[in-house]
User: Which sequence fits this backbone?
């Protein structure tokens, strides 16, 4: 009796739409056609190998189910939103599931957990296909210790109090007969994320040395350094507002900055609820901050040390839908004591499916630059310019790109073959 009740409960959790309404039949009595739409964090090869009861297709127009997977950072890892969008005979029949992964998980553990949830989400569709006869329900009652504790829950205590710590150290050594390039870097950071607060702090350092030997036997040494430390705290107010503050210390040879210190605060409003941010967000905000700047060389304003205050505002729109992705942002910054010093930047990106197999991608950004207060008065040497050792004086910055992608042939995309993948054995030089 208990087993029967468990099976019924699982079926109810899996497919509420099946119990509530009549589900249309799959297309032509064939296996469910699935289009996997996941840009980050998915192992497509693994999913195609394991999901043998569906047919993968390479275009959403050919699918019965469009599986859109989006990702955003969570307290201790990532949260994936799995949106099952019915197509064709399943039009209007969909659901959404959430999968939370931990930074402590291996890639294999993460993909196994995602695979399990995808299988659950496909059940209402697969039961209408010839593969329904192969479905079985197995219920494993979790032990008390395995029950997850959500942030803010009193069901248990987190010994780390939701703090997650990460460290990274690395080095890269490259050498040729007349050139050497050595780098070393390291960083440490910590973060704490709950529904009410997002906090973090960290530090980083990078050192790079390049040595060159010219035809006449002379040598040139280039050394660049950058380091920093930061901390911030952001308080949530409902589903639309966020208020934060933070501080930072920084040094950078590229920016002619021996030491710099900054404290700032910001306010943000999201037109849509933050719970929908993995699919869409329309945010606007304002910030204000103060800085103490110590330079390595006197600047074009003739100073080695100065105090500055600046403020700015932005508006940003991001959307990820079955037709593709789009984002656009406008940001304005200005120094308070000298309003002639400012920066205006507009950026955008669009990835849009025009029709079956045809996708257009457009990206562009442009900035009006009037705030380079850090430029050295002595100017730049030829070596500085050629090696990119120092920032260049400029009034604008632009970037634009366009690409078209067209795919044709078989609609199916289920076969898995990773032999010699990414080996580049046909490369020249």
Assistant:
């Amino acid at each position: 009796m208990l087993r029967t009740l468990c099976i019924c409960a699982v079926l109810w959790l899996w497919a509420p739409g099946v119990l509530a309404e009549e589900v249309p039949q799959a297309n032509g009595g064939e296996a469910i056609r699935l289009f996997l739409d996941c840009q980050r964090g998915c192992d497509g090869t693994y999913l195609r190998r394991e999901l043998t009861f569906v047919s993968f297709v390479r275009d959403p127009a050919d699918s019965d189910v469009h599986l859109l997977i989006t990702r955003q950072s969570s307290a201790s890892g990532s949260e994936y939103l799995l949106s099952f969008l019915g197509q064709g005979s399943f039009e209007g029949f969909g659901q959404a599931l959430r999968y939370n992964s931990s930074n402590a998980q291996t890639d294999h553990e993460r993909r196994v957990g995602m695979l399990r949830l995808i299988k659950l989400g496909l059940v209402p569709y697969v039961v209408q296909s010839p593969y329904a006869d192969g479905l079985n329900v197995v219920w494993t009652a979790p032990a008390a210790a395995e029950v997850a504790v959500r942030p803010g829950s009193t069901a248990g205590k987190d010994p780390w109090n939701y703090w997650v710590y990460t460290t990274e150290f690395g080095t890269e050594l490259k050498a040729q007969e007349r050139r050497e390039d050595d780098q070393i870097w390291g960083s440490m950071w910590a973060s704490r994320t709950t529904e009410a607060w997002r906090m973090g702090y960290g530090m980083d350092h990078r050192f790079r040395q390049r040595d060159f030997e010219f035809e006449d036997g002379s040598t040139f040494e280039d050394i660049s350094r950058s380091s920093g430390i930061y901390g911030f705290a952001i308080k949530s107010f409902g589903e639309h507002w966020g208020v934060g503050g933070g501080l930072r210390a920084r040094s950078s040879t590229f920016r002619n900055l021996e030491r710099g210190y900054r404290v700032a605060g910001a306010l943000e409003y999201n037109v849509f609820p933050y719970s929908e941010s993995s699919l869409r967000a329309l945010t606007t905000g304002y910030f204000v901050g103060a800085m103490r700047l110590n330079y390595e060389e006197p600047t074009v304003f003739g100073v080695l040390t100065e105090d500055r205050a600046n403020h700015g505002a932005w508006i940003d729109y991001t959307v990820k839908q079955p037709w593709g992705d789009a984002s656009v942002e406008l940001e304005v910054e200005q120094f308070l004591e000298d309003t002639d010093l400012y920066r205006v930047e507009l950026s955008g990106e669009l990835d849009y499916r025009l029709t079956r197999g045809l996708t257009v991608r457009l990206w562009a950004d442009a900035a009006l630059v009037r705030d380079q207060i850090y430029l050295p008065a002595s100017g730049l040497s030829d070596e500085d310019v050629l090696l990119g050792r120092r920032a260049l004086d400029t009034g604008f910055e632009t970037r634009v790109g366009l690409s078209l992608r067209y795919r044709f042939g078989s609609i199916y995309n289920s076969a898995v073959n990773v032999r010699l993948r990414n080996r580049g054995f046909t490369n020249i030089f």
Q: What stands out?
A: Residues 163-406 form a domain with the Porin fold (CATH 2.40.160). The longest strand covers residues 219-237. Residues 1-25, 145-155 have pLDDT under 50 and may be disordered.
